[in-house]
Amino acid sequence: MKALIKIGGSLLDDATSRHGLARQIAAVSASGIQVTVVHGGGKQMTRFLEERGIKSTFVRGLRVTNDETIDAVLKVLAGSVNTQLTAALCAAGARGVGLTGIDSGVALADQLDPELGFVGRVTSSDPALLNTLTVAGYMPVVACVAGGAKGEVFNVNGDSMAVAVASAWKTDRLVFLTDVPGVLDATKTILPVLTVADCAKLIADGVATGGMQAKLDAATNAVTHGVAEVRIVRGSDPDIVARVFAGENVGTRIIAGDRS
Is the separation of the CB atoms in 116 and 64 below 8 Å? Predict the structure, then answer.
């Protein structure tokens, strides 16, 4: 089984949370599942820039990334955040290997919108490096930085990166570790299972908006491109990774169409 786990940057900002998740992910890997981790780091990026007197500007939820900001992306996202997470995974017994999407074409991107600067849209993902590492027992830990065809460096949305990599790597399960317990209906009740059609209706009805709409768009993109299932769960819940892979009905499971 192949599993891609995407971790939001806010879950990695605290050392206790980071090491707790690392222990759970390492245990999943030790059980024989091939695991790749994709991580964000927006909170850390904003703090780094603020400490240097640089205000972050967002357009449609995406950080405008100029020369100054892309340098911070490399220092923070591909640097400290990636290294700290890889170190935590190694300490937990996994054989973590820190990467970015630039390495060996794991994620190739082009410019999403000139207004956003160096923000990329992943156009292709080569899974060869992930296959080589995971078959040999290593765990790729991928920061959301992609390369361009002409050597550009792009800041990429973490959910979009996770979907592109998971689809190319032919992942059986994509797990989003987020700050919400799952997808909620209009009464704030967790929806345990959703199909692509269900997701579209939640968005059309205005129930899923903002960040959750983006998550559902990413999830439906994944399951329509070969990922067997997507799970959206709250990363801070106790033993959440272990519970997902133990088969517990936690969070929201998103599938292509058949609920059976």
Answer: yes
89-118 confidence digits (pLDDT tens)? 999 999 999 999 999 999 999 999 999 999
**Residues facing 165 on adjacent strands:** none
256 phi, psi to nearest 5 deg: -65, -50
Q: Tell me which H or E stretch contains 103.
A: none
Give the residue carrying structure tokens 């969070």. 251
Length of the chain: 260
Query: Exposure string (b/e) for 34-56, b if CB count within 10 Å is 16 or more?
Result: bbbbbbbbbbbbbebbeeeeeeb
Residue with tokens 């929201």: 252
Which parts of the chain have pLDDT scores under 70? 258-260
Q: What is the pTM of this model?
A: 0.93
What CA–CA distances, in Å, run from 191 to 105, 171, 185, 232, 235? 36, 23, 6, 10, 17
The amino acid sitting at 143 is: A
Q: Residue 259: what pLDDT?
A: 59
Domains annotated on the chain, with CATH = 1-171 (3.40.1160.10), 177-260 (no CATH)
Sign of CA dihedral 7, 8, 9, 11: negative
Burial of 15 (0-12, 13-18, 19+ CB in 10 A): exposed
User: If residue 6 lies in a helix (H) or strand (E), which one and from where to where?
Assistant: strand 2-7
- Give the pair of three-digit tokens for residue 27: 């245990």
